[in-house]
Amino acid sequence: MKNRGFTLIEMMIVIVVIAILIGALLPQFRGTQDEASIQRARAELRTLATAIESYYIHNSNALPTALSSLTSATPRIVSSIPNDPFRAGTSYTYFRDTGTTPVYYVVFSYGPDRAATITAISTAGTLTGGTTTMDDICVTNGTPAGAPSC
Q: Whose CA is closest to 88, among 27, 30, 37?
């Protein structure tokens, strides 16, 4: 009577095939995670932009000095500032222009490369920083010169 079952070689072949399949699918899964984080950042940034505009209207046409000002404003605009999905435990980055009465702002996520390209916003409303390889996800009321993500 012959024993029926898998040999060690057959088992190893199956394990190698499974490992190859997993290796091929993992990079695609990472891309899906990044795409979900990009969509989340875009939605949260639109909400923050609306909150900043509301703050501006309710506070004598003054922009908040920091995003945290939105949580303590009167009337209360937002209860908490969400975290940038590309920077664990850190909120989105916010800049306003450096004029005596700032009117332009940008709020942004670092994006999939997890490095900030935007460095400031000018008094003319133009974003500054490297823009050739920008992957920052941003919302601004200025002119995003060369900033395709805004």
A: 37
Query: Does 24 fall in a domain?
Result: yes
Verdict on whether the full-model pTM lies above 0.90: no
The CATH code of the domain that includes 102 is: 3.30.700.10
Mean pLDDT of 45-65: 94
What is the C-alpha separation between 74 and 60, in angstroms, rounded?
12
Which residues form the domain of 121? 8-140
- Amino acid letter, 42: R
For 114, the token pair is 């997890």
Asked whether the CA dihedral 116, 117, 120, 124 is positive or negative, the reply is: negative
Residues facing residue 143 across a β-bridge = 126
Q: What is the pLDDT of residues 56-82, one digit of tens each?
A: 999 999 999 999 999 998 888 899 999
